[in-house]
Design goal:
The protein has three domains: 146 residues, 2-Layer Sandwich (Beta-Lactamase), CATH 3.30.450; 80 residues, Signal transduction histidine kinase, dimerisation/phosphotransfer (DHp) domain (Helix Hairpins); 145 residues, Histidine kinase-like ATPase, C-terminal domain (Heat Shock Protein 90, 2-Layer Sandwich). By secondary structure, it is of the alpha+beta class.
């Protein structure tokens, strides 16, 4: 096989992978979109709240600390210039209090401190320089391991410094930030939940459409969508229901036509079968050419009779009549169907449960699977029966070369005869056997598929549910 090339002679570039298949389902994309929008909105609100609240609280704290430092500095100044009350040390002790605050006084190059221990050398130089030049100044620093606001007030021949602790404000701001972050997270989760709920409600009509389409594809032509009040969804539901009704009428018309034709063919076919039987009994009296013609006619008449019988079967209503249901042991049905066929082993795994089925249809399923293996795959070599998750599993392994994956759905279509198409002998089959099997399995709400057999051939798997309701 020669590989195709581009017009320039170079190989065509590989197609990029389909990224859409890797995307989340639509319902989850809606939920994620809700969550992202919720996170964005609440995040912006939380950020604005944080800036406004933190700025307001910090400004109030700095304003209060500055005013208090100015009042305390005035008291220190009065004490320093009053020769009668020369007790600046006691005053500093009183001003420092017993908390995390501290005060310091630089006079004649000497520092006097009171309150929480801190290193005066840690005071910023620019802060002291401004105060020394006669300009009050303040700055947030870390002193003694805690955040403080240092307020420097110039005095005649001195500088007064008061350290107001900010650890309480810092704790409040941390708590506020934690509340805001938690609120944003909760808002995102609520947005995800709201988006999931909204997605389910918005996509419910599409889910109903998918389920109804799946039922129609599985053979339930009675599936319909409920009437919709929404102006956008009502035309969709009406179109689907109308299409399903048209398809149902067409399928029933075709089945009725096949049934009528088959009924009409039964009488002349019976005459042909009897006539061929008479010719076969007198075969020895015929010349060689006539004998060959009788043999060919006999094979075709018998194949034609089998095809008419299958057409009559396939034209019947696919639904199982509840009156035909009975509780059956699948192992007994399989053993009876295998009968005296040579080379076929019946393997029972575990204890398969009894299930409620139409025995005639299940007999036909197993019989057609064995006949199909005889006609197309060298015969069946194994029939397995085992308990499935929700019922019974039947496996038929053949001795053939297997079925390629691309043809595993086609084999269950009508008149799909594969390599035997065009053969005129009866062993070639009619191409309706597996179609009937799939029809009967669907009527029992079961599943049928083709797998690879460990022995090298094909394995046809039938799974029948234990509860059909």
């Amino acid at each position: 096989m020669v590989a195709a090339s581009s017009p320039t002679g170079s190989a065509a570039p590989p197609r990029p992978p389909n990224l859409l298949r890797r995307r989340l389902p639509l319902r989850w994309r809606i939920a994620v979109a809700f969550a992202v929008v919720s996170l964005a909105i609440t995040g912006l609100l939380a950020l604005a709240t944080w800036h406004l609240a933190s700025g307001f609280l910090l400004a109030k704290r700095e304003q209060g600390a500055t005013m208090q430092a100015a009042v305390d500095a005035r008291l220190v100044q009065e004490t320093l210039h009053d020769p009668v009350r020369d007790g600046s040390g006691d005053l500093l002790t009183g001003l420092a209090g017993g908390g995390d605050g501290a005060v310091a006084l630089r006079r004649n190059g000497t520092w006097t401190t009171s309150g929480r221990r801190f290193d005066v050398d840690a005071l910023p130089d620019d802060l002291l320089a401004l105060a020394g030049s006669g300009t009050p100044a303040r700055q947030r620093i870390i002193a003694g391991g805690i955040p403080v606001l240092a307020v420097a007030i110039p005095l005649p021949d001195a500088v007064y410094v008061e350290l107001a602790p900010l650890n309480g404000l810092d704790t409040t701001l941390r708590f506020l930030s934690g509340v805001l972050v938690a609120g944003v997270g909760v808002s995102g989760l609520l947005g995800l939940g709201l988006g999931g709920w909204a997605g389910r409600r918005a996509l419910r009509p599409l889910t109903e459409l998918r389920d109804a389409a799946a039922r129609v594809a599985a053979g339930d032509l009675d599936a319909r969508l409920p009437a919709q009040d929404d102006a956008d969804l009502a035309p969709l539901a009406a179109t689907f229901n109308r299409t399903a009704e048209d398809l149902q009428r067409r399928v029933r018309r075709d089945a009725r036509f096949a049934g009528d034709v088959s009924h009409e063919l039964r009488s002349p076919l019976t005459t042909l079968v009897n006539a061929v039987a008479v010719l076969r009994r007198r075969r020895a009296e015929l010349p060689p050419t006539a004998r060959q013609a009788v043999d060919l006619l006999d094979a075709d008449v018998h194949r034609f009779r089998k095809m008419v019988t299958d057409l009559l079967e396939i034209s019947r209503d696919e639904h199982v009549d509840p009156a035909d249901l009975e509780v059956c042991d699948v192992v007994d049905i399989v053993t009876h169907a295998v009968g005296t066929r040579t080379g076929v082993a019946v393997e029972v795994v575990g204890t398969p449960p009894t299930i409620e089925v139409d025995r005639r249809r299940l007999d036909r399923v197993v019989g057609n699977l064995l006949d199909n293996a005889d006609h197309h795959a060298g015969g069946a070599v194994r029939v397995g029966v085992a308990a499935a998750d929700d019922g019974v599993r039947i496996e038929v392994d053949d001795a053939g070369p297997g079925i390629p994956p691309e043809f595993r759905e086609e084999v269950f279509e009508r008149f799909a005869r594969g390599a035997t198409a065009g053969r005129r002998d009866e062993a070639g089959g009619t191409g309706l056997g597996l179609a009937l099997v799939a029809r009967h399995v669907r009527a029992h709400h079961g599943r049928i598929r083709v797998e690879d057999s460990p022995a090298g051939g094909a394995r046809i798997v039938v799974e029948l549910p234990g509860d059909r309701r």
